[in-house]
Specification:
With 530 residues, the protein is mainly α. It has a domain at 410-524. 63% of the residues lie in helices and 4% in strands. The protein has a four-stranded mixed sheet with strand order 2-1-3-4, covered by helices on one side. β3 (493-497), α27 and β4 (520-524) form a beta-alpha-beta unit. α10 (171-183) runs antiparallel to α11 and α21 (355-367) runs antiparallel to α22 (373-385). It is globular, with a radius of gyration of 26 Å. Mean pLDDT is 87; it is low at 1-24 and 525-530. The structure holds one DNA strand of 10 nucleotides.
Length: 530
DNA sequence: TTAGGGTTAG
């Protein structure tokens, strides 16, 4: 096939002009003009930026029956369009049809494999690129960051520096700052920040935005605020990054105050800003403010709520006990509820002890044949809290049948000199005795201060004492104890956990912070709050 | 006059 298109997609019907360009005259239908290669490339680019593969395929079909069907520039734009629409195989079919491949076509395809997580194909292609330049390095590194391969992205960045590639402009740096954020590695982030300053790019808007986000995600909200405060120009991404950062640190009032300042500064919020704001309200129970924001999103800014916005609203209502109203949101919303939507409601049913609604919601959730391990854990947890042990066993069997495996939890602490990873229990650590001695000492002190273990997050069918023992050596506590033993008094202990921190550990970390007069921060690498 | 790499949620 010379054009890389499936013929079943080929249509000679003109597409609706209102789809892509509602206000402009219809070139095909009114003026009877045929597009040339410039028009095709521009149209394809528009489809790429809209993420509109259906329209993109229609333009592609028009192109292959046009007199310009051999134009390599249009083909490069088609590769880019398919890549941006998440269709790397379609992109590759077009890429293969390009007669004279140049740096642009190679870069577009390379980016396609990297951003869709097709690591081996991306590396193979990178080996075959005729000329490696900053574009191809950036495509590979950024693609890996986007597909969650932060570690690979980082090693590639180091390799790029070792090969002496000139960073003539800073795009790659915003991606690599983003990878530090995703890895929640403050130390790496600080080093990259140093490099940004050394290369003279600190005032770049994209880089500053990425740095604000990175510091917030690496638990240093003070540094994030400092950078934000020093920015001479701020756009909607800058404001949204600091709002989301404050919200994730539980500073809802601050997030809302920043939002007010943003509106006063004349910056229009976008759909991400509202996700952050409703999230902030949800986590501190500001129900009426959250409701108003949801309404304001449409009324004042013309933003149609997405499924995610509805899930945020439902989370806000159900967490604060408005379960019936939350269920009504599901009935009334113009989307089919997905796994996170039902999961948010089920979690609230469990929290508020509404077993009747919870059982109904759990059935809905199971009918979706969930894929996320966390959903199965939630289901099992819900049934366990209702002492429905047969259902717990069924969920466990379903997990085994579906080959769903719970990722083992671990916590990582960086002492400034070294980084250590701890799993629950950690029976072989050289400092095991000292760590558990300290945890026992802290446990006694906390109980004197009124701490009562919250065993509701322990899944298993076991007695109270055994459940408390399970909580006692959760990995984040082991990591905190290690930090207390190794770090200078007064140091902030930053712990990164791969899973969400359980309710009891939140309470325990607050108590430990009080007992030891320390600031203990935890950050989940996977923020799965909805 | 047309094509490639960048930041915020999930």
């Amino acid at each position: 096939m010379s054009h890389g298109l499936q013929f079943s997609l080929l249509t000679t019907k003109p597409m609706s002009p209102t789809k892509l360009s509602p206000s402009s005259p219809a070139m095909f239908t009114l003026d009877k003009l045929q597009p040339d290669h410039f028009v095709f490339a521009t149209l394809v680019k528009a489809c790429a930026s809209l993420g509109a593969p259906r329209q993109g395929k229609q333009v592609h079909a028009r192109f292959v029956i046009s007199p310009f069907c051999d134009d390599d520039v249009v083909k490069s734009s088609l590769v880019d369009m398919y890549v941006k629409c998440g269709l790397p195989d379609d992109a590759h079919a077009v890429f293969n049809s390009i007669k004279f491949k140049n740096s642009v076509s190679w870069t577009a395809m390379l980016s396609g494999y990297a951003r869709s997580g097709r690591k081996n194909e991306a590396f193979e292609m990178f080996e075959r690129v005729p000329v490696r330049n900053l574009f191809s390095w950036t495509a590979l590194i950024s693609g890996f960051v986007q597909s969650g391969n932060g570690t690979d992205a980082f090693y590639l960045f180091i390799k790029m520096r070792r090969e002496g590639v000139d960073i003539g402009e800073p795009l790659v740096l915003s991606s690599i700052v983003g990878s530090c954020a995703n890895l929640a590695s403050l130390e790496l982030g600080k080093q990259i920040h140093g490099l940004v300053i050394a290369l003279g790019y600190e005032s770049s808007l994209f880089i500053s935005n990425a740095l604000v986000d990175m510091y917030a995600k690496c638990s240093d909200i003070v540094a994030a605020k400092n950078i934000f405060g020093r920015m001479r120009r701020k756009d909607v991404v800058s404001w949204t990054s600091i709002i989301v950062g404050a919200a994730q640190h539980g500073r809802a009032e601050e997030a809302l105050a920043i939002y007010d300042a943003m509106v006063s500064a004349g910056v229009k919020p976008n759909e991400v800003t509202f996700v952050g704001l409703i999230y902030a309200c949800s986590h501190v129970g500001l129900v009426s403010r959250g409701r108003k924001l949801f309404k304001s999103m449409t009324d004042d800014y013309g933003i149609s709520p997405s499924l995610q916005h509805y899930t945020c609203l439902l989370d806000l209502l159900s967490r604060s006990g408005h379960l019936a109203e939350a269920e009504n949101v599901i009935q009334a919303m113009p989307f089919k509820p997905d796994e996170p939507t039902w999961a948010a409601l089920l979690s609230a049913c469990k929290q508020h002890g509404n077993m009747q609604m919870g059982t109904r919601v759990a059935n809905q959730l199971l009918s979706l044949k969930p894929e996320e391990p966390s959903t199965y854990i939630l289901l099992s947890n819900f049934y366990a809290s209702a002492a429905m042990w047969e259902h717990v066993s069924k969920v466990r069997k379903l997990m085994a049948h579906m080959e769903v495996k719970k990722e083992p939890g671990y916590s990582c602490i960086d002492t400034g000199k070294e980084s250590q990873v701890f799993h629950a229990g950690e029976p072989y650590h050289p400092l095991k005795d000292k760590i558990f001695g300290l945890l026992r000492e802290l446990d006694g002190e906390m109980r004197r201060r009124g701490y009562v273990p919250d065993i509701s997050s322990v899944l298993h069918d076991m007695d109270q004492q055994e459940k408390e023992k399970q909580l006692f050596w959760h990995s984040e506590r082991v990591a905190v104890a290690y930090g207390l033993l190794k770090c200078v008094p007064g140091t902030v202990l930053r712990i990164v956990k791969n899973l969400r921190v359980c309710g009891d550990c939140h309470t325990v970390l607050k108590h430990i912070s009080d007992c030891k007069q320390r600031n203990c921060c935890t950050r989940c690498q996977q923020i799965s709050s909805f």
